Write the structure tokens for this entry.
Amino acid sequence: MAKSDDLVKYITQQVVTFIDTPRDVRQQAKAMHKEQREHWQTRWFGMLPLAARMLFDQFKTKK
């Protein structure tokens, strides 16, 4: 029973902090988080796309 009470308390706190923050501040935080996120290729495949791109660039310059 205590776990559900803690969950309700946590959710209530999150909702209250969300409502209390101005819309501009939330949008700025969202934009900043979006800028700091890695590119989807890096997130999904690690360094393989970068290595492949570097390899193909080497072959293009040699020709």
User: Anything to note?
Assistant: The radius of gyration is 22 Å. The longest helix spans residues 2-20.
